[in-house]
Fold this sequence. Notes:
Blueprint: E1 9-14, H1 24-36, E2 44-50, H2 54-57, E3 64-71, E4 78-82, H3 83-88, E5 94-95, H4 103-113, E6 120-126, H5 138-142, H6 144-167
Parallel strand pairs: 1-2, 1-3, 3-6
Antiparallel strand pairs: 3-5, 4-6
Amino acid sequence: MTTAAYPRVHLLVCGNVDRRDDGAALWAVSHLLAGMGELIAPELTVIQCGQLNIDDLVGLDGPALIVDTAIGVAPGDVVTLDFDDLLRHPKAAAPHSSHALPIDQVIGVARNLSDRPIDGLFVGIGAADVGYGAGLSTPVRESMGKFVMEIERALVRLFSNSMATVAG
Length: 168
């Protein structure tokens, strides 16, 4: 019996804990990973990227899950979108950043520059306050359980899709 090497799944965690709700993804992923313990798949790469840049996506050897605070979403609401949906609807939910390219442009340029397909999912939580300071706003804090569960579901979906692709 032979075993196939499964593609890696890359978890890109964006945000800044010094900007209140902008740190939600960092908080959620740290709690998710702590709860997984030894169940963490060796095929999972976790990348803390602060704000998403083209270089974060170019050259990845598997699908990506981008986790971040979102704009265009009610505070505390959690959304999951695939990259193609983000490209088709650039004015919909998007990662929060005041000084980076919009996510549709980051993904579009990265796809044009990469010699490998760039696919994946975005899971975001609507922010109420991204000003300087520590701690999460009440609506974001109250929705963290749902945010963690959506991140976990997205990881399962990406790993399942990767294994189905390898199995062919």
